[in-house]
Amino acid sequence: MDNIKELIRFTTHFNVTPEYDSVLQYIYDAERQYLLNILNDEELPSELSGLLDKRVAARFIDHHKDTILKEADLQPITRLKEGDTEIEFGGDNTLSNLTALTSKWLSLEGTEITCYRKLKW
Questions:
Q1: DSSP secondary structure of 35-50
Q2: Residue 27 DSSP label
Q3: pLDDT tens, N- to C-terminus, the chain (121 residues)
Q4: In angstroms, rounded to a whole number, what is the distance separating the alpha carbons of residues 120 and 102?
Q5: Contact present, 43 and 117 (Cβ < 8 Å)
Q6: Taking every pair of C-alpha atoms in the chain, what is the biggest distance, in angstroms?
Q7: What residue ranges do the domains of the chain occupy?
Q8: Burial class (CB in 10 A: 0-12, 13-18, 19+), 85
Q9: Contact 68, 74 (CB under 8 A)
Q10: What is the secondary structure of 42-88 as a DSSP string?
């Protein structure tokens, strides 16, 4: 959970206090089960833990937009670079930047999840 809290703090400057731990755990369990269903497996490969962390952080940010946007020092990221891919989020306000970020993190397109999927025979 500390990785997820740090990811949220890094992107939004919102400090996730212990009162949100049960919400984060619920989102984590739901997203983990969602990925396991896609993979058709009982264990999540360690290589996909970063994907799970981003999805949990994105769900948390999406569900708590109102609280996060009230923070005075909110300066969400406008550019994201992973490997040789760089994405610049458009929009002229904080809400659109936050929405673009969460949409990117929730998207499974371009991820390695299909490499780990097990097929039933």
A1: HHHHHT-SS--GGGHH
A2: H
A3: 899 999 999 888 888 999 999 999 999 999 999 999 999 999 999 999 999 999 999 999 999 988 888 754 555 567 778 788 887 766 566 777 788 888 889 988 878 888 888 887 6
A4: 32
A5: no
A6: 54
A7: 2-116
A8: exposed
A9: yes
A10: SS--GGGHHHHHHHHHHHHHHHTHHHHHT-TT----SEEEETTEEEE
